[in-house]
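Standup, Tuesday
Yesterday: got the pipeline producing C-alpha cells again.
Today: sanity-check two examples.
Blockers: none.

Example 1:
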Amino acid sequence: MQTAEKLRPFGARDKIGYAMGDLGCNLSFQLISSYMFLFYTQCIGLTTTNWAWIIVVSKIWDAVNDIIIGGMVDRHRLSKKSKFMPWIAIGSVGLLAFSILLFLPVQQLSQAGKAIWCLLIYGLYTTAYTMVNVPYGSLHSVITEDPKQRTSLSTFRSIGAGVAAVLVMLLPQVVYVDNVLSESRMFLVAVVFSVVAFFVFILLRKMVTERVVREERVEKVSYLSTIKSFFTNRALLAITIATFAVVAFHNSSASVNNLVFQFYFHDAEKASFAMIASYVPLLALMPFASTIVGKVGKKRFIVLGGLGSMLAGILMLFLPITPDTKGMVLYIAGLMLVNIGSCVFQIIVWAIVADCIEMSYRKKGVREEGSLYAIYSFFRNLAQGVGSAVVALSLSAAGYVESAPVQTDEASAKFKTLYILLLVAGLAVMTVSMKFIYNIDLKQEQAFAPANGDVAETMQGE
C-alpha cells in the first residue's frame, strides 16, 4: 500500500497521456464513421440495403458486448498495478488487426460474400474497440476526483479526438482520384492509422497514473443491480439521451457531407475545408472550457451552445446555397456555426459522465465505473447503428445510387438538405435532454471535489 504523497501528482503528463487514448480510438472511429459506408458502397459494391441491416446487427452486438466487457473489467482485475490498462493492451492488438482488415479490397467477392465479410470483420472490430474504449472511458474516474482536473482531462481527451478528426478531415486530399474514391488508397490509410493508433495506446499506458484506487469490496455487484443504478440515475440517463442524439444524427452523418461535396459541389477534395471549419469552434473554446464551466456549469454551457447552433441550422435550410463556389463558401460558414453546439458537447461530455458515475457511487456506496460506463457505451454504440442505418435508408430514399459514378441534380440537392436536417435534429434532442432531464447543477459539480483537495478514498501504488 502506497500513500498519496508517494504518487506522482496530477499534471500535464496525465493530460497528454489521456489524450493519446482518444487519439488512438478516434483514428479508427472517425475513419470508419466518415468512410466505411462510402468504401463499401462505392468501392466494394455492397448495396445500401445490405449496409443498413449489417450495421444495425453489428451495433446491436457491439452494444451487448459493451455490457459484457464492462462487467468483466469491474469483476476481473488482470493486474495488481492497474485495473484498466491490461484490458487496453489486449484490445489494442485486436484493434490493429481488424481496423486494417475492414478496409481490405474484397470487391471480387459475391454480394453475399461481401455482406458476410463486412458483418464478420466489423463485428470483430467492434469487440476489440470495446475492449479498449470501455476501460479507457472508466480510466477518467481513477486518475483524479477533482472536478476541475476532470474537466481538463475531458478537454485533453477532446484534443486527442480533435487531432484524429483533423487527420480524417485531410483525407479527401488523399483518397479521391478525379472525384472518385480509391479503394487502394483507403486501404493504405487504414494501415497507417491502425499502426499509429497501436503505438499511441502504448503511450497512454506509460504516461497515465491511476492514483484513485479504492479497496475492493468483498460483495459482488450483479448486472441487474448495475442496470438499476443506471436507470435510476437521472443525470446519466440525460447525458445518454443527449449522446445518442449527437452520435446518431451528427457523427453518423459525416458520410453524407462527403457526398454533398462529391456530387452537389462536384469537388470531393473540398470536403476537407468544411471539416476543418467545423472544428474551428472546438479549437476556439478549448482554452476557456474549464473557466466557462466553473462559472456557468456544464449543463448551461451545453444548452446555450445547442440553442445557438439549432438556430444557425434552421437558417441554413432557407439560405440560397447554390452548387458553385459562392454557395460552397456559404455552406462551409454555416456548418462552422452549426457545429458550435456539438463542439461544446464534445469538450465536456466525458467530465459529465464522470460526474454521473460519481453521483451513483455517492447514492449507492459501490464503485461500478466499468459497468456503468459500459451501459452508457451500449447506447452510444446503438446510436451508431441506428444513425448509420437511418442515414443509409434516407440516402436511398433521396435517390442515392451507390453504383452510379454521378448522381442526379435533384438527389444531390436532397443530400445537402438531409445533412442539415440531421444536424439540427441531433442538436434539438441534445438540448432538450440537458435542459429538462439533466439534474446536476453547478453547486453539485463543485461538491464532488474532495475535502481540502485530498483524495477521499484509500490510494495505493505499485
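Example 2:
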Amino acid sequence: MKKIITTLVIVLIGITLVACGNTEKVFNFEQGYITVGMEADYPPFNWMETSPNEYNHPLEGSTGSYVAGYDVEVAKEIAKQLGLELKIKAIPWGSLGSALKTGEIDLIIAGMSPTAERKRTISFTDVYYMSNHVVVVSKEGAYANITNLNQLKGAKGVGQIGTIYAELVDYVKNNYGSTSLPVRDTVPLISQDITSGTADFTVVEKPVALGMVEANDKLKIVLDTTENIFNVNDEDRELAIGHRKVDTELQQKINEILATITQETRDLWMEQAVSRAAN
C-alpha cells in the first residue's frame, strides 16, 4: 500500500511539474472576444487616432483613443469571421512577445516577420502581407538621387530596435561603408532623425516608406526596385500573425480566414492605410 501511495505521489508531482512548465494559456473561444496587440505607432500598418470613424477601432483601456491601419483591417476581419468581439491593445514593440505568452493578448498583428528567432518562442499563421524593402532619405540631402547602395558610403543610417530594419542598416554598413547610429524605438522618431540631419537614411518596408513620405514631404524613397538588393530571406519580407504555440486550433481558423481575403482586398486596405496615415 505504501508503495502504491508513493508511486501515486510521484505521478502527481510529475503532472504538477509538467503543468507548471507549460504556463501558456490556450485561447478560449467561449469567452466571446479576442485581444490583439500592436504597436499603434507604425503607419501604415497601425497608428493612433483621436476620433472614431469607419476605419478605426477603439483602443482598449484608453478612452478617446482609436487605432487604425492595415493591421486593424486584418484584425477586424478575423474577429468578424470568428464571431468574436475585437479588443486591441497598444503594446511597445519589444514587449509584444511577452504580452502574448502571458495571455495579456491573444494575437500579435503588428507588421511582424516570422523569423527563425521569433519562432523559437511563438508561432505564426500564414502570411498576411509581403513587401520589399527600400531606402528613405532626405529629399534635399546628399543622397536624394542615389541609384545603388555603393553610394551610401559614409552615410549615417538609423534603424528601429528589434526589427529587420536595424539589421539592414547594419548590412549596408558592413557591405557598403556607411555608419550606424543607435537604434530608435519608433518609425516617427527615425523620420525626425532624417529630416533634422541627425541621420542620412533608413531601410524600411515599402508600405512604411510610403507612409513616411506621405506624412513628411521632406522625405524621399530611393532604391525602390523589385530586385532583392539587401539579400533578404523570404521570411523577412513576409508578415504573419503571431500566436501562442499551444493555440493550434486558433491558428487553423485564422489561416482559413486569411485564405478568404483576396489580394485585391489586401491591396485596397494598404492603399487606404497609406493615404489615411498621411492625413
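Quick observation on example 2: The chain has two domains: 24-130+238-277, 133-225. The domain at 24-130+238-277 is CATH 3.40.190.10 (D-Maltodextrin-Binding Protein; domain 2).
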